[in-house]
Amino acid sequence: MDDLEKATTKTPGLVERTFHISEQGSTVKREILAGLTTFVSMAYILFVNPSILGAAGMNKGAVFTATAISAILGCVLMGVLANYPISIAAGLGDNAFFTFSVVLGMGIPWQKAMAGVFVASVLFTILSFFKIREVVIDAIPQDLKYAMAAGIGIFIAFVGLQGGGLIVADKSSLVAIGSFTVPTTWLTIAGIFIIAILMAKKVPGSIFIGIFATAVLGLATGLIKMPTHLISLAPSMKPTFGVGVANLAALSDLQMWAVVLIFLLVAFFDTAGTLIGLAQQAGIMKDNKMPRIGKALMADSLSMLAGSVMGMTPTSAYVESSAGIAVGGKTGLTAVTTGFFFFVSLLFSPLLTVVTDQVTAPALIVVGVLMASSMREIHWDQFELAFPAFITIIGMPLTYNISYGIAFGFLTYPILMTAAGRRKEVNYIMWILLFVFILLLYILNILH
């Protein structure tokens, strides 16, 4: 143990009083290293999020800045309020739903769709404040939670395969393999192998390093144009800031309330499973319960609300926080450190021109693999659980709509559990959600 670590182990000041570092058996040095590790592992979202929301017509520069600031806010709130080594940033499943299901699928302009995000964020914060969110989350069967994560993962991977040119539309079979005569397709393939090899070797920050290496390869081969400069002031958020609030009149349309409901439900369940899994890894769980979970959910809610004002889709706890926890992060100082590095990243927006769809596609595919791994926890030997989980998973990519996949699972679970003689195991909230989703599917179909 070096002098710095000895000193920081005994530091009593404001940092110690806020994060209880010594009490948790950690040091300031270790927490900062963990925060840096987490940042490197999840920094890809700075480039992936503008790419996905840019497909909806949003300004990529503004989205880049909003992504960084919402991450800063989320990480600091999580660290200070809940004292957890868990970081928050824009959720990949939420931005995919926004772009591909709402804007492109339902034909709703992104400005109006952002109004739906804002209202959902307000409702989300209210539900978290009154702890209703905790009650509903507890009512959802674990198998469906795993299925939702896996389905979103496969959907995201499908988006990546499309963006990278590996899968294209086909009139006879709906989809087909892309052309290998297109040079940029090979850039995607190279990126997949780079990230996959790094992941297999368990290199910290594999996805971020892979994005960087793929971009460098693209520049070296002339497939990507060199940026005019590397560092600049953060782009203005003016193109997206306050757009959701300014378009609240759009909620007079019944279709928009379907959007609000879906955003509310997706965001509702998105963070819970990740928080619980990471808390188990960090040794935070006590008696199978997560202390301070109310504060953690409030941190998530407030960052989501602030992000919606800036022009951001919902934020979420990041599974990549496990990388920081693995190197010793145990307190909120880890999350606050991650937020600090997101602040530094605001200077590097010119790199957005370098990080093309072919560069981000491998990251989406690999993240899809990580999310799909939750399928191993599903009880496949019990059909009444397996079928709702399976139809949730395949429903998302095959309908190209995350909300439909979720609806399929929630509609079939109570019915099959009752048929199997397990009606008493179905929480009454699941029956309420069944009718909510029947109404939702009806609205989506008549207004699509």
Structure characterization notes:
With 448 residues, the protein is mainly alpha-helical. It has one domain. Helix content is 67%, strand content 3%. The chain contains 20 helices and four strands. It has a two-stranded antiparallel sheet with strand order 1-4. A two-stranded antiparallel sheet has the order 2-3. Strand 2 and strand 3 form a beta hairpin. Helix 18 runs antiparallel to helix 19. The longest helix has 29 residues. The radius of gyration is 21 Å and the shape is globular. The chain starts with a helix and ends with a helix. The N terminus is likely disordered.
What characteristics describe this protein?
single chain; 448 residues; mainly alpha; two-stranded antiparallel sheet; 20 helices; 67% helix; globular; disordered N terminus
List the helices and strands and how they pair.
Blueprint: H1 3-9, H2 14-19, H3 28-42, H4 45-54, H5 60-82, E1 88-90, H6 92-106, H7 110-129, H8 132-139, H9 142-163, E2 167-170, E3 174-177, H10 183-200, H11 206-221, H12 243-246, H13 254-282, H14 293-310, E4 315-317, H15 321-326, H16 332-345, H17 357-372, H18 383-399, H19 402-419, H20 428-447
Distance between the termini: 62 Å
Count every beta strand, where a strand is a DSSP E run of 2 or more residues: 4
Task: Tell me the domain tally.
Answer: 1
Major sheet attributes: 2 strands, antiparallel
Our Rg estimate from Cα atoms comes to 21 Å
Structural class: mainly alpha
Number of helices: 20
The stretches of 5 or more residues where confidence is low (pLDDT under 50) are: 3-11
Residue-averaged pLDDT, rounded?
A: 85
For the largest sheet, list the strands in their spatial order: 1-4
Percent range for β-strand residues? under 5%
Helix-strand topology string? HHHHHEHHHHEEHHHHHEHHHHHH
Q: Which range best describes the helical content: under 10%, 10-25%, 25-40%, 40-55%, 55-70% or over 70%?
A: 55-70%
Quaternary structure of the protein: single chain
Q: Label the overall shape.
A: globular
Family: Belongs to the nucleobase:cation symporter-2 (NCS2) (TC 2.A.40) family. Azg-like subfamily.
GO cellular component, one term: plasma membrane
Main location: membrane
Transmembrane segments: 32-56, 62-81, 88-108, 114-132, 144-168, 174-200, 207-234, 254-276, 297-319, 331-352, 359-375, 387-416, 428-447
